[in-house]
Amino acid sequence: MELPSAEAREQMLHVLETQSLYRDRVDWAEVRMQLAAAVDDRADQRRILDGAAARSSGGHGRWISPGQQRERSARAQRLNAAQGTALADPPKVDARIGVLKVGPFLEDLQRSAQERYAARKAHALALQQRIVDLDDGTRCGWVVDVSSNGGGNMWPMLLGLLPLLQGTPDAQGARIGAFRSADGPQWWRQAEGEVRQDGGETLRSRQAAYSLRAGSAPVAVVMGARTASAGEAVALAFRGQATSRSFGQPSAGLSTGNRPMTLVDGTTLLVTHNVMTDRSGQGDGAQLQPDQATASGPATLAAAEAWLLAQPACRGG
Fold it and tell me: DSSP characters for 243-269?
């Protein structure tokens, strides 16, 4: 049974107790007493630590053991490679509608920071290239399908989808969403070939500055119970956009932000520390509700298609 070192365990508990979003849901003195009583039971210690991380994060944060990190690295490579296949084989809809199946993008935390940044850019450019390939002058609307997007890093998804996003202007740029904490919102913004967070993450590429031939188009977002974390961030980025509507079932309810932290023993703690919101600042970290509830599966795509074809852009108006 893998456990953090004694020093890393204390660091983990301190970080969770002082920084985790739902830290008030945990009796930290009781957790420490339980750990002391389980000193000879490694499995029980792991259960107690995992439970504290889960409760203080709403089920989103966790400690990642070395074995789990190796598994995560291999899974990241499989999932990110599979995204290319999903992009190339969209479901059949009216030929005037472009469909983008936006899958998860997992960071391989075993790679260097430079390698991870390059992987984010490559993922974003592959997604945006799919838009370029589909935008042949006949598309009047778009489906962004995040129904199977379980999360990861949201920035490659947002950069890839940049041609479809129409941010809400303010004095600092164009807002598409935010992370909100006790210190207020840190807005997600779009610019030409760039997405960024105020005072935080930035992902940019001169190759990611494509504009739709029509300038703009209606976007239907398809979501469901497997839409989680970064998948929910994508859905939020389109919420409030005048020519966008969401379809499907409520999301997983992990619309909160995680920050990876390296502990003193080299293991990783995912710390959940803020809530995701849409561009108007609305969001509570819980499930996202679609604008139009539909049965799962083909019915959701059919409803999205019907709405798009009824829009002025698809009616020639």
Answer: TEEEEES---S--EEEEEEE-TTS-EE
Cα torsion angle, 24, 232, 259, 197, sign: negative
**For the segment 196-246, what is each residue's pLDDT rounded down to a tens digit?**
999 888 999 999 999 999 999 999 999 999 999 999 999 999 999 999 999
The per-residue pLDDT for range 66-120, each reduced to its tens digit, is 888 888 788 777 776 666 555 556 678 999 999 999 999 988 888 899 999 999 9
**Chain-centre distance for alpha carbon 100:** 16
Provide the whole-model pTM: 0.93
Q: Which two tokens stand for residue 143?
A: 């489906």
**Cβ atoms within 10 Å of 35's Cβ, excluding its own:** 17
The domain segmentation of the chain, as residue ranges, is 66-257+284-315
Q: Which CATH code, of 3.40.190.290, 3.90.226.10, 3.40.630.30, 3.90.70.10, is assigned to 66-257+284-315? A: 3.90.226.10
| Structure tokens, 122 | 């490559």
